[in-house]
Amino acid sequence: MEWEELARELSQTTDSKIVLLVMDGVGGLPAKGRSELEAARKPNLDELAKGGVCGVSDPVFMGITPGSGPAHLALFGYDPLKFQLGRGILEALGSGVEVGRNDLVARGNFATFKGGLIADRRAGRIPTEENVRICAYLNAHLPKRDGVEVEVFPGKEHRFVARFTAEGLADALTDADPQKEGKPRLPTSAIVPEAAKAAAIVNRFLDDLTDVLKGEPKANTALLRGFSKFPSIPTMQELFKIRPAAIANYPMYKGLAKLLGMTVMDVGGETADLFDSLEKSYKDYDFFYIHYKRTDSAGEDGKFDAKVAAIEALDKFIPRLVALNPDVLVVTSDHSTPSALSGHSWHPNPFVLVSITAGVDDVTEFTERACGKGLLGRFRALYAMPLMLAHSLKLKKFGA
Amino acid sequence: MEWEELARELSQTTDSKIVLLVMDGVGGLPAKGRSELEAARKPNLDELAKGGVCGVSDPVFMGITPGSGPAHLALFGYDPLKFQLGRGILEALGSGVEVGRNDLVARGNFATFKGGLIADRRAGRIPTEENVRICAYLNAHLPKRDGVEVEVFPGKEHRFVARFTAEGLADALTDADPQKEGKPRLPTSAIVPEAAKAAAIVNRFLDDLTDVLKGEPKANTALLRGFSKFPSIPTMQELFKIRPAAIANYPMYKGLAKLLGMTVMDVGGETADLFDSLEKSYKDYDFFYIHYKRTDSAGEDGKFDAKVAAIEALDKFIPRLVALNPDVLVVTSDHSTPSALSGHSWHPNPFVLVSITAGVDDVTEFTERACGKGLLGRFRALYAMPLMLAHSLKLKKFGA
Fold this sequence. Notes:
Two copies of one chain form a homodimer.
Chain A: H1 3-10, E1 18-23, H2 36-39, H3 43-51, E2 53-58, H4 68-75, H5 87-94, E3 103-114, E4 117-120, H6 128-141, E5 149-154, E6 159-165, H7 196-212, E7 221-229, H8 236-240, E8 244-247, H9 251-259, E9 263-264, H10 271-281, E10 287-292, H11 294-300, H12 304-315, H13 318-324, E11 328-332, E12 349-354, H14 368-371, E13 377-380, H15 384-391
Parallel strand pairs in A: 1-10, 1-11, 2-13, 8-9, 8-10
Antiparallel strand pairs in A: 2-12, 3-4, 3-6, 3-7, 5-6, 11-12
């Protein structure tokens, strides 16, 4: 019996409230002996560590560096090795493209087609403004085909997302991408017979697109990869009997939250907006996911000091969380983003849980090193959700 | 999705180097309040603990005492509950018998056959020299059979290994051993139809052997158990895209390493030979497994002081490892061998990992007690390999 089945069986609705604050990528590595968290002045986060119990969590398991998708899935109680989201879905979510149950999405590249061959798989990395213009033109001029709606959404430079809406689409499709330059265009093909309809629709779209764009000097054809349908994944309501809300302002996290059945709040781009939104919606939901992006962005940019500043900036808002007095308050990261590595890493996340049932340990600081000595020990992030549900008394006893 | 699949997907070849030093059985138990590691003067190992991160690892899971086979498989990134090696294979590896893909091996006992019954299942534990003589005689006098090669290899006292080489052998065979004295000889039988050929070959061999040895007073027949073919196990190259080398001087470890695709170095019996070999081959491989046996031997003999001395002796060579400046250096044991128990045990292994991406903890000594407080926490030894690969940047990101 896996956690997912157990959750369905044991979860119960209560009035208690859970607040999960994700400081994206907050875990780091030392520079001159101190990590970003160790270098930051963050009295309020340290106060949480003093009052709660701490630990460190692995997003997938030791050594595995996760993308944001799997890392968040784990924190939300979904085994990231079981529920895998296709690249197309993640790209669509990241671009703010809405994806419904009948939709098939794919990641696209505009490319240059010359003398019957793909001359440039990235269309000379056309400027994003060009991409926006071309996508608008395509959406206006692609011929209408019976029973199918297609829309393209511009991304950065040569990248876009294509969304196909029709009955009976399947995503078992090979990439429509020859992978190398100097080769002819490659149509997609169905990996299973049920995907034949989708393959035909996609290939007709690619022909139509190439025809519509034949006057463009660079972006005159397209490659498509990572075909994905809306994944079949149970909602958080189904699994945990909670009313979840997401407070985030980046498309990827909003999209993922929506996929899992969360109500996604409309929030502005300032850090204060996250907390305003929480206070405003606090009475209407019982699980709040708050996403703070700046720690990750600074880490990705390799900027130690900016990451320290992002931690210190967030720290000032912690009293507003505490003032709401949630039954369970957790602060952690989805994955580490050490500025020393300028990217995601496999290092475990510092984790603090505050609740009247938390128990005690001797941790007095919210840092990797200190959390590593906490009562929660080292655990898979998948167990964050059972832990939060338990401390909010939302899980019944297993067995008699 | 399991680690094995994930490894195939995420691993990538890089120039970075990993050195894994296995101090066989180094974990122990206290006598007069201090374990063997706590009693030993080992400044260089402690220095590693200071500079790296520590933890304790369970070879299989808590409470399970592993043999050397499963314990090493786990450290090499193979789930020991999934990849099980037959006793015949382990016996063969332990005796230095080469085993190829067409070979079937079994553990043998010489036995005494009298009046149509097995009178002694161990042939009165004949001296090893007798065994050597009898095996040589058998290899010279067993009748040749078409399409089959058979060879016997002497072990200690009455034990030997039999190796059958032919096309289409299978190892689904019952033991050719009546288990009790006073019973008739028992032929093997095929558990599945595909093993019928192997059963016939084995039984004819047992008849031939009994015929050839009929003049012997004690060792005049044989029993065979644990039939095993070369296991179907992916190599470390396949799984991890590394070029692995094994620096070990006991047959069992060399054999196991070979089975997993490692290049096995020819090394002498002195501790210094291990490090000479490492230095000589350092440029040619990117993963080095170094096996130090003396800690285990002393533990098996129940000799606390000898085990302390073995730790101290090894400690002097640690600077030679450090001087090579590998991207990842791990020192751990495959399993514990407390001298108080004179054998393998289920206690977790102290583990230290040194790397510029290691992160920090407050551990300053390489002991069971100190490692238990390290940032790595307590983990299954199976995760040592993803951890080593991650810290040497040999694993790509999982998902987006």
